[in-house]
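Workshop exercise sheet. Pairs work together: one partner reads the sequence aloud, the other fills in the structure field after running the prediction. Swap roles for the next sheet.
Pair: D.N. / O.F.
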Amino acid sequence: MEYLENVRWHGLVTCPYCGSEKTCRHVSGDRRNQRWQCQRCTKAFSATVGTIFHGTHVSLRNWFLVIALMLNAKKSVSACQIARDIGMRRPTVWSMMHRIRRAMAKDKKQRELLFGIVEADETYIGGKPRRYNEKRNQPKGGNKSKRGRGTDKTAVIGAVERNGSVVAEPIIGGKVNRIALSTFIRKYIDSAISVIMSDEFPTYRHVCRGTYHSSVNHKERYVEGSTHINTIEGFWALLKRAWYGQHHHYSRKYIDLYVSEACYKYNARHKGSMFHETIALMVGA
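Structure field:
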């Protein structure tokens, strides 16, 4: 609790209800709860008020363990694994992890416009592994399962700065078309000061009209000078390995939270104090 207070208030305790700095220790003096009293609105509070830890029956120690294990797993970790590691029920850990992912989705890095050299691409998540589809699950007649833009998997659009941040969001129940791409680019990319790089998908030429755009034809090569989308392809690899190796299924209701977790950890990869920064995000510091 003392650590949480230091991260949130930096030694200057402020009432989360009225914003007053005239506070003192609560008269109860319970060091386990460490509550404070506001002298203006007379309300009692603790450092967990207004955070994902507010009202929880799980100890802060276990919350910190779950956050640390999630951050340490580059390709994500399942709720079953964490439940075994710290001796908790899987449904409880699953609920905690989703609350943490919702807080990660509010990271400011994921709301800043990308600029410079920006790679844009889309991927598809769901279904069975490609080899299973092609060898074991073929429909009668021998037609192979559709891949890429012809599949019924959930589409995810993403963009990443070279040596910078990544943003991505799923298209729930939709297709990657001109409307979806143009909406995503306007929302996340500063087209006026950016060079957008993509694959040979023709729709990119239409939505990037009026800005600098360069594409590479993957049927011929993957790199053409400085034009490539290998950076965003590397991020897709992390996202898909989390799906294949850990979670195995993303429901359409929660897929945006899993994508947000992958984006947050990718954007925080160079931070030496990732755990401290994450706790600060959780408490709004």
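Discussion prompt: The chain has ten helices and eight strands. What would you look at next?
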